[in-house]
Design brief:
The structure holds two protein chains of two kinds. Chain A is α+β, with helices and mostly antiparallel strands. Chain A is built from five helices and twelve strands. Chain A has a single domain, classed as 2-Layer Sandwich (Ribosomal Protein S5, domain 2), CATH 3.30.230. In chain A, a hairpin with a 7-residue loop joins strand 1 and strand 2. In chain A, helix 2 packs across helix 3 and helix 3 runs parallel beside helix 5. The longest helix of chain A is centred in the last third of the chain and has 24 residues. Chain A is elongated, with a radius of gyration of 20 Å. Chain B has one domain: GHMP Kinase, N-terminal domain (Ribosomal Protein S5, domain 2, 2-Layer Sandwich), CATH 3.30.230.70. In chain B, helix 1 crosses helix 2 and helix 2 runs parallel beside helix 4. Chain B is globular, with a radius of gyration of 18 Å. The chains are: A alpha+beta, B alpha+beta. The interface between A and B is large, with 40 and 42 residues. Strand 12 of chain A pairs antiparallel with strand 9 of chain B.
Chain lengths: ~260, ~250
Amino acid sequence: MTSTIIPLVKRKKIAETLPSGKRLDGRGLADYREIKLETGVIGSAEGSARIYLGKTEVLVGIKIDIGEPFSDTPNEGVLTVNAELAPIASPDFEPGPPSKEAIELARVVDRGIRESKAIAVEKLCAVPGEKVFIVFIDVYVLNHDGNLIDASAMAALAALLNTKMFKYVVKDGEIEKKPGYTQLPIRNQPIAVTIGKIDDNLIVDPELDEEHVIDARLTITTKKEENICAIQKGGVGYFTAEEILEAAKIASEKGRELRKLVVKA
Amino acid sequence: MPRKTTKKLIDKKGVRVDGRKPNELRSIMIKAGVIENADGSAYIEQGRNKILVGVYGPREVHPRHLTQLDRALLRCRYHMAPFSVDERKSPAPSRREQELSKVITWAIEPSVFTDRFPRTSLDVFIEVLEANGGTRCAAITAASVALADAGIPMRDLVAACAAGKVGGQLVLDLMDVEDKMGDADLPVALLPSLNVITLLQMDGELSADEFEKALNLAINGCQQIHMIQREALKTRHIAVKQAVEE
């Protein structure tokens, strides 16, 4: 965190090639790194997915529990997203309570899923006002090489699409599990696309070295109808209005490609 | 949060719950220099929002290991008073407050010449005393005035304002019910003279076309707020000048 000098040296190197449309690792400005997705990787979780975005590796596990609804939404299930930046994933991560970075990551992933209404929460109510299903989405970063937001959001969606719910009956206000499973009701597919800015160049999917030197980032989440459902700007730099509209266009194009890939996984 | 579009949020004539037109700001009052102990301070009332901001610094960094060798460490802390909302809020910082502290810092830092004060910290404390929607924007607006009041060299003020969609219509400066029951909320912070955007978030749903219109509406709101910020600083300047001369 305190090493501010090295990124300044790196920045020059990274920024140099951008005007010619190339990045240090050979990618074009709007290219993602290679993506590999596996689903159903954890037997004890109701749903799970592991994503490799270049060298970034994120595991998402989904657990479903029974709990009380919020008082303002008595007929709806509850969605909870938590992110762990486990010390195993980077020399910069330390054990301890969630850092601000982890909280922001969880909240951005949460916003995409919530605002796109991806989970049909009204179908997750067993006893109105008393017993609903809680969907816990736990994001586990296993190797940090940049762009955790997009990797986590994609893995979360892949895991949701692969989540099984136990069958149940309600007897005297209690939930009784029955053998067999149904699919968790998912009706939208939010995809987060993060765009970094270095000088006047917009780059998609910044890897760690790029992430250290970008002026600012913009994460735009689009729904399957390609409307925007969530935005988060990060970093101390700025964007012009033109850059933002350009980024929105990139996000919807890239979102279309990535959505196909995630749904197929 | 439920996002049900209620007809009542905006009527056929385009009048909103509190009687405003779609592109109208709430009434805004900003006062600079309100906390004796702080190096700079400001108070803002925007509709029913009441927010107090105090700036301390440049001063020694605590804890020391956070020291930046080439610039000041700018830290904004957004905090809501337990009595600021209908249901008492625990005074411990929530995840929302921690995220907002971070995005507010990012919104303000581009406006400050932090490289003039290496190895120091600039602490911006934001206390929301009463909240009624759009507090992150009002907090940024006030924090920028407080930093100017503290005499910190700045490239520009930061003015912030949200636009959004309520009852199918694009509106400016959403209040609490409009945010909660509306279709989309898009908070924006602008450096008005440089015309660049330093905070951008969104939730809800907007098409590409609506997004462009909402962004421009929010930018326009920021420009109006910028004028109010300048007036507040002028008033403060005159008051200080008179006090010195007496």
